[in-house]
Structures are given as C-alpha cells and as structure tokens.
Amino acid sequence: MKKTKAKTKKKKPEPVIPVVEVKPTPPPKPLSEEQIKRRDIIRDKMAMMKYKDLQINCVIRGIDFDFMVSKDTNGLQTWLVINWDMPCIQERLEEFDGWREKKLEEIGKPGEPFVRLGYVGTTDPNTGEILDIKKPEKMMSKPKKRERDEETGIFKGTKKAYTCELTKAGKPLAEIIELVTAKFPEAKEKSIKIWSKRFQKTLKK
Asked: What is the pTM of this model?
C-alpha cells in the first residue's frame, strides 16, 4: 500500500504592524526678557502675600472657586502669574463667601466657621496689597448685653429666671416643671426642682 503524505497547513502571514513615527515634543519657547522681568516682578509681590492674600488676588481675577480650593500655594501662585493682568472684580469676594457657605451646607456642616474673604474691602490690582478692611454686616451690630435681675442676680430670660418667677407666683412644682420645659425643652426636671427649692428658701427669709 502506498503511504499518503499528511497535508501540511499553510501558515498565515503575520500581520504587519505599522510603525508610527513619534515626533519629539518641541521644547517650550524661551521667555523674552520682558516676560521674565514681568514674571519676576509678580513673584516678588506674591512673596509678600499670606495664603489668604493669595486667595483674594486669585478670586478677584476670576479663578474658578472649585479649582481654587483644590490647589495649594504653588498652584495658586502659578495661576496668578498667568492671570495677573485679568480685570479685578472686588464683588467676587462676597460671592466666594456665599459659595463656600452653600458648600458647607451640602456636606452637613452649616454654620461651620471659615476665613471669609469678603471681610476685605479693596485690593490694589497692581501690587495685590489689601487697601482697607471692612467688617461683615453680621459683625457690625454689637451683641446686646444680658441683663441681670437685681433681686436674684440671675440673667433675665433664662430657664432659671423663669423657674424663679413661677416659684414667686406660688405655682406648684409639677406646674412649674411643665411650664419651664414647655418654654425651654432642653431644661432638665432635676435642675428645675433644685432651683425651685432654693428660691423657696430665699423667699422664706
């Protein structure tokens, strides 16, 4: 019998991978003498700024608020060098304060204290120097002084003062507790009892 030769499969030609020529990134253009001088002048001005001053100068020149709070000192300085000649809008400082308050509310921290840039009045657009400082509207009015009762020496309008008032009126202890806790939900029954007993003793003298 004749032996049959096994058929050999023809190998498929390997795909030709095109060679992509990668061009080297051209080096940045060197700064002109005027640009170098301007950059150095701005850096000298920024060297005298505190972090808050740096934030202020960025905000009035139009920096994005989210971008600003994500950057450190170096990042803000880099941005400021590039955008130094942008028009300065002082009103943006109060806009930033309002924006930050909303951000604190969103993360569940309403009323959290933070450095308000709007406390600053005006900033010199050429030097970045703060020219004057204004107090926010909330701080313009002085807090009212708390008045003390001349007879008891207790501050008026407090739960302790109200307990004293009801005790003087001859109200029974159960009613005093009910009225005080209704007006001051945070008041503790044990404290009300102690205050009332003390006031009764002073009334008997």
From this structure: 0.43
